[in-house]
Amino acid sequence: MAGPMIDDAPKEPVVADETPLLPVPPRRLGTWAKENLFGSVKDTILTIVFGAILGWFTWKAITYAFFNARWEVIFDGPLHVYMVGGRFGDTGLEFANVWGAIFLVAAAGGWVGGLSVRAGAVPNWKRSLKIAAPALLGVGAVLAMTRTITPTLLVLATFAIGYATRWVVPRLPHGVARRSGWILTVLTVASFLVLTGGDPGNINRFGGLLLTVVVSAGGIVLSFPIGVVMALARRSSFPLIRPIAVGYIELIRGVPLITLLFMGQFALGFLFPPGMNAPGPIPRAIIVITLFTAAYVAEVVRGGLQSVPKGQTEAGQAVGLSPLKITRLIVLPQALRNSIPALIGQFISLLKDTSLLVVIGIQDLLGITEVVLGQLQFRSQGYQPETFAFVGLIYWVITFTMSRASQRLETRLGVGTR
After folding, report:
1. 231-276: per-residue pLDDT in tens?
2. CA–CA gap between residue 229 and residue 218 (Å, rounded)
3. What are the beta bridge partners of residue 364?
């Protein structure tokens, strides 16, 4: 029987292809358009149709914004009313309080940026400028409507304080940087005290953009920890905690926000003990918006908790960690990282929901338009398109900036890629 054939012939050595790779030529705009917009007859028809529609809307928008709109409803006086409301003068505060609070917030933002640099992040000014472009556009549009150079100088001072803080933080001693949580808390509390002049009741006389920012920031800061606790409570095995969390979440999610706002204004005072002063209308609105958003945040975080593989918990148990440490150090950070896109979407929705405050008589950014249009020089003259376009621009700038910042955070944390 013949054995297996063995090829004893010497094999030729495999020679790697050492041909140098040629650099990929940059794609020209014409090539890109031919491949993506006019690649076929169908693509060509769709490009022409939607291009004509987009061009028509763009032309009408430019014509309206630069030739037909009567921007004197913004230029001639009431710009400060859009910013702080019509009753800000009743507080006894000055605009210096508002700018002082903005400076402290800028320092807090610069501190956070400095911590990022201290952790090893390489500053990318080009990318940062792209993210900040909508905010810079909005600030530039507002400053273009001012009559003096003072607001422009104050805005430049705000950027200078933020940049200076960002430059200083990486150079601080390690002991100071370790207390960043306390320092940021102090800056936040100090900005609130400066803004209100030490009297929280002054919030009830805020209006316009200032009120929208205060309500939104308060709702975001307060609803996040409540939502996280509720999400953990809903997954708890303790027989009393879980039903309470489920009942709270399902009750809040089953009622429209506008209904809760009315209940907050008329029924929330009965929950306070006799002899205790019930909060004013704006703190009540903040409480309601916080409770409403916390229910949705809880569901978002619960989805993030469920996305963490069970093996992560088992690995923590294998090294002897307690259930609390497993949740705090392993499960919750991964859950929050996975929940970032949905959380940012929920916070953007919160910001836009503040426009419902006008229904209960609170003059937020949208509600302040009624005050401006009611002034004698603008009454019954059809200035509604200009005022609502200006308010819409401010809403878009804030929400789009939040969205871009979220995208950058997702990229840095690798959300969806690992």
Report:
1. 999 988 887 888 999 999 999 999 999 999 998 888 877 777 777 7
2. 17
3. 208
Residue 109 to residue 191: CA distance in whole angstroms:
12
CA distances to 146, 162, 351, 354, 402 from 364, rounded to whole Å, are 21, 27, 11, 7, 20
208 forms bridges with which residues in the sheet? 364
Please state the pTM of the whole predicted model.
0.81
User: Counting beta carbons within 10 angstroms of the beta carbon of residue 55, is it exposed (0 to 12), middle (13 to 18) or buried (19 or more)?
Assistant: exposed
Confidence band, pLDDT 50/70/90 cuts, at residue 290: very high
The answer to whether the beta carbons of residues 112 and 408 sit under 8 Å apart is no
| Type of residue found at 64 | Y
Ordered DSSP codes for 104-123: HHHHHHHHHHHHHHHTTPPP
Single-letter amino acid code for the residue at 414: G
CB atoms within 10 A of CB 252: 19
Query: At which residue do the structure tokens 């800028």 appear?
Result: 106
The one-letter amino acid code at 154 reads L
CA angle 221, 96, 160 (to 5 degrees): 75
Per-residue pLDDT tens over the stretch 354-366? 989 988 888 888 8
* Run of H or E residues at 205: none
Closest listed residue to residue 205, CA positions, set 299, 291, 72, 97: 97
Contact 142, 136 (CB under 8 A): no
